[in-house]
Design a protein that fits this description.
alpha/beta; Twinkle-like; Dna Topoisomerase Vi A Subunit, Chain: A, domain 2; single chain; DNA Primase, Chain A; Rossmann fold; six-stranded mixed sheet; 3 domains; about 625 residues
Amino acid sequence: MFLFKFAKGNIKFKVENAVKDVRNIKIRTYNDVRLDSIPEVSPALIRKTLKANNITYEDGYTCFIAQCAFCHKSTNSTKSTSKLYINKTTGMFMCASCKRTGQWNDFELLTSRISKKKHKPEDVEEETVNMIKLNESLSEIRRSTKELKGVNTPAFEDVLKRFRLPIITNSALANLDVRLTQDETSMYFPLENVENEIVGYRRIHSHGTSDVVIPSLLYGGVLTARVPKSKETAVLVPNISDFLVLLNTKVSVNIVCLPNSVSNLPLYVLPSLERFRKLVIWFGSDTNSWDAARHFAKKLGENRCFLIRPTDRLKLPHLDEAQDFKAVVSNAQPMWHKSITTFASLRADVLSDLQNMDKVQGVKWKRYPTLNKILKGHRRGELTVFTGPTGSGKTTFISDYSLDLAMQSVNTLWGSFEIRNARLARTMLQQMAGFPLDENLQEFDHWADKFEKLPIYFMTFHGQQSIKVVMEAVEHATYVYDIAHVIIDNVQFMMGMSEESKHIDRFWKQDALIAAFRQFATRKNCHVTLVIHPRKERDDEDLTTSSIFGGAKASQEADNVLIIQDKRLTSVRGKKYLQVAKNRYSGDLGVMALDFDKSSLSYQQKKVKEKKCPDVTEEKEEQLL
């Protein structure tokens, strides 16, 4: 991500929308994943650095836990037990006492100063400023609000109804500093760090607008209800409604409400979850929730994660408050097994799959219902190979295809090696709007604001890149941003034609790249779409799986093979259509007509009128073959 520093002046920074207003000049930033923002770090390197600086540490689930050497007296951090949490994967560090946080290169710089005894005044000043800003922000919220638990019972229930929250007793909030604005339009929930210190508030609005963390998520605060008798177990829930229902029933475990629901799990909250030896993940039964539960478990450490599997009988707490919550939590199944030797180990998984068959099939496309009939949906952990003739609209289609999924909260990482990100983003923006924005500039801000909220990230590569560099970027983005769909457009541009590679077999190089992405998709449970040019064929011949450039590995390793067939080149009345040539999930094959709408730059399928026979569209598509 880009980092901007501005001089003093009339500057406003709106974190939640990544829009900066500088003296009335609006600057928009893409969610770019830059190579120089990816730290070269590994657990072995972190251990080596800590030992070299004589820093003792503990090996946690997601972090190394060491005594903070950066705390100064000026921060009033006099405790000798100030703990520094260093993320094992990225090297990002955080101290709950002095509130210092940064990336791995910042940590190396600070430790080198300490070892050379070259403390700079700015270091102490930065800590002091951080503490002052945090305390001022918290004090301002407390001054301008009142405690919700102080509201009498009839008015208390009215407030909960206004915010569309479940009705709970006033006493349930006895140990929670939930606050309400004087006009009763905003509610603030306290966020605690790993030291049980309030470091922020999560603001919700009665009108249902997006939640906001104040002052910042960087302090590592999460909404937590602590139970003294059970310090080592916590239930993770996706929303405040579930949090309040469990809080009201007094389950004998800690309750944690994740900050971004199931969309992603920020690195900054991982230290706050280090204290729990057992984490019970209770998400919904929809596809995104199910995938997020498995993905978050890998991020949190699968050996301590348990899953409440979504079935018809087990629903989210706020959907069925009559459940026996204690029994549900105690019967949660482990996510991780050393070995699976019998069907009994898989029985719960099979039952869950059968009861949620439509959800197991994956995320459905809204723009391409025919694809849903053939592929059934977009699933994590699969590899899709996409090919078509030069100029047939591969990039245009795949951007529309991925936009459809991103609009349904599928976190997407784009690696566009052939066209620049600005041009790709412009295409996707017009596809989202559905009309030419250059002719309707007054609509730009409206649609750009909507597009910014989509979970789409762009790699800043262009042209040839090595497999190692690209895989490092993809692995990093998947961990940090919880990516569920990676697109590489296209493989040939990524491999390039460098002087160093002229002695390397291009087929072997491409096979190595495909093998790397196949392994990544399976290991990280992430869907990968590879755009590959076909080898040169005669114009009057259809492309097949054998037409994909390179060896046979691409079509062998792929779960899905999609081919654009363009008959317009050989026939006046020829059509263009998408052929599903391989479908490992259901085995169904077929075609989908591609009718390009130039005004929206989209191949979105038009809805069939009710008067027409529903089989007409399918018959026409069959005739295309």
